[in-house]
Design goal:
2 copies of one chain form a homodimer. Chain A is an all-alpha fold. In chain A, 76% of the residues lie in helices and 0% in strands. Chains A, B: This is TetR family transcriptional regulator.
Chain lengths: 201, 201
């Protein structure tokens, strides 16, 4: 698991600066997910972390760089999804991927950084660029690499569109009955769509 | 079509106050779609429309009410989509709905209010409530009313999720190759998914 949560058990003692870095990143994730990119300031992150703004700049640089660092580590669970593609038969990939992604969204601890990405990427070009680098380049290209069709990247993106759109309506905008529906009911309906995009005709 | 664009031809002459209202609404749509709900102010809208803030409050009330008025009229093309459900055989509804929605998004004039809704609804609870009233209550419930299944609303929302997610990745975040793909290629892949959600097993 991540350094933030796993550092107490069986790891060498960490330096104070690593603790400070983690505290800044945790504060940054919270600020970005609640306010979105535009309304979050380095000063606000520093205040929430109990440090001076100069220290935030010292460790990470610009606001964009803080955003990318905060989001990249926290999005790691979601970005690991491509292993699921190779991790079994191709005709079960829709179910594995959908179940995994909704697992990440259903868990409040891993939902927060995803909210930060979605909220920020739709309102700010800098954050959108980070989204494209992380999600499109790291996640979707790797999924596409497992598919043996010429339009593999487009297929991966349309599968992602069903997942992103469902997450937006359920977790962000909270449209009913989708927001309160049992997650298993949603997975049952969405998994075949993801499968169809990835391996259908 | 709407009063804003259609008033010059074959209509009775309008009052000056109707012109002012329209100018305020046009300015509001532009501000909300570029900045999102939170960063838009009544003062900024008034300035863009060349009027006093008091006049904006006089015609519309609060910022939330300006947002709802600006978005409701402009979203009318997208909200007319449910007629398409009844307007032909049920097994062609996926194609009709998908083609219509992408037509609205591909047209810069009608795209702007949709951008305003999406950008605002994901970052602000007031705007999310407007989204739920307009899109969920007006559009999705009416589509669901045409379907003869117990989970009709959930099906309509999952179809909307594919459309919303695709629009987000293509028009807002601009992920490639989806952003530059031919719209017909996207409709070919998305229409069967929408159809499946609405009338599949």
């Amino acid at each position: 698991m991540s350094d933030v949560t796993g550092r107490k058990r069986g790891r060498p003692p960490r330096t104070e600066s690593a603790d400070t870095r983690d505290r800044i990143l945790a504060a940054a994730r919270e600020e970005f997910s609640e306010r979105g990119y535009e309304k979050t300031s380095v000063r606000g992150i520093a205040k929430a972390a109990g440090v001076d703004s100069a220290l935030v700049h010292h460790y990470f640089g610009t606001k964009e760089q803080v955003f990318e660092a905060a989001v990249e580590i926290a999005a790691a669970p979601a970005l690991n999804a491509p292993d699921l593609v190779a991790d079994g038969p191709l005709d079960g990939v829709g179910e594995r991927l959908t179940r995994y992604i909704f697992g990440v969204w259903e868990n409040p601890a891993t939902r927060m950084p995803l909210l930060a990405i979605v909220r920020s990427a739709v309102t700010n070009e800098t954050a959108a660029a980070v989204f494209r680098r992380l999600v499109a380049a790291q996640l979707l290209r790797r999924i596409a690499a497992h598919l043996d069709t010429p339009d593999a990247e487009l297929r991966a993106e349309l599968a992602a569109a069903q997942l992103v759109g469902t997450a937006m309506l359920r977790y962000v905008i909270k449209v009913e009955p989708l927001a309160s529906a049992d997650v298993e009911q949603i997975i049952t309906r969405v998994a075949p769509v993801v499968q169809g995009h990835l391996s259908g005709p």
